[in-house]
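Bumping with the actual sequence this time:
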Amino acid sequence: MKQVYIINENHPKLLLFFAGWAADETPFKQYHPKDTDYMICYDYRTPDFDTSVFDRYRQINVVAWSMGVWAGSLILSQVPREKIFSIAFNGSTSPIDNLEGIPVQTYQATFDGLTPASLQKFLRRMCKDSNAYKAFMEITPRRDFDEIKEELRLIRERYFEMFGNMEHKGYDEETEERFQENFERYEYDYDYAFIGSNDRIFPPENLEMNHDNLMCNNVILTDSAHYDASMFRFLLQDMWEMPIDDFMHHLKSINIE
């Protein structure tokens, strides 16, 4: 996993952003959260993470998006929670799952059919409309295609190795015990979850199922697409300038329920 500082000015707080599959810092380095350092994490071919970052700051505010919700949960479940405030956006802690994530066959079909052309179709589905897609293509990640295809494969392999493929029934007792140990070890509930009704990557109803342990007021339903520039401007910049009362009021204003 890569950890890239966008702002590194020895502030007492850190905004830690776990981006999605195939991402890099390019679409997100335009944001400048106030009075905080800012780090972006991406490339989940390996789970390696330098946890010393948690010792450096008084407060860690976490935003995790898409596949970063799962990658972030693996890290956050292993560190003290007292100084962490975390938000999930359009992602699941069970990312390849028929009930709580991307359905298994959909994920497999995406991998099997992944070409540079199908990747562009995937990026188009991430965006709400053609204008949003054109804007995203101006700041699209600059990663090698073979690298991101390998990332998609390794995410699937690591997830099934740790937690199992619910469509495969050939587990023995020892394997089941290992899966259960991993579920308990890496279980993590985000403080807030934002779910976009126009998400065409993760089914919104699956995300609601995944985050059903949260209090209802902490699950915020919006009209966002999977990638939504206005939501990222809020989550990675504007919200950190709001007094707490203004923040809570804003949450009510974007909830579509």
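The tokens above came from a reply further down the thread. The CA atoms of residues 6 and 29 lie 6 Å apart.
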